[in-house]
């Protein structure tokens, strides 16, 4: 999703503030989030235009609330995932692994 310049600035500031508060280096975030260190550096400095998977992964890793206008389809996707989940941690792990595999397939095709 393409972001407005003010949204990029706001999100980048929150990401960088959280990174500093946690004392994480770019390389530490890269290891934890599985995002390339160069991408981590650019994202932390606000050099991105979309709420890409890497931006979202870094936000999740740092515990940064994205607070963006949700795309119309997001609620439909959320509902579908919640319908799959039986409420247990084990099932949450299974669904997470399944979605990771789907993401990998999408990246390679």
Q: If you compute it from the alpha carbons, what radius of gyration comes out, rounded to the nearest whole angstrom?
A: 15 Å
Number of domains: 2
Number of helices: 6
Strand content: under 5%
Which topology of the largest domain does CATH recognise? 434 Repressor (Amino-terminal Domain)
> Main β-sheet: number of strands, strand sense, barrel status?
none
The number of distinct β-strands equals 0
Q: What helical percentage do the residues reach?
A: 55-70%
The SSE order reads HHHHHH
Give the overall silhouette: globular
- Which stretches of 5+ consecutive residues score pLDDT under 50? none
Mean pLDDT reading: 89
At the first level of CATH, what is the class of the largest domain?
Mainly Alpha
Label the structural class.
Answer: mainly alpha
Distance between the termini: 20 Å
Any idea what the CATH architecture of the largest domain is?
A: Orthogonal Bundle
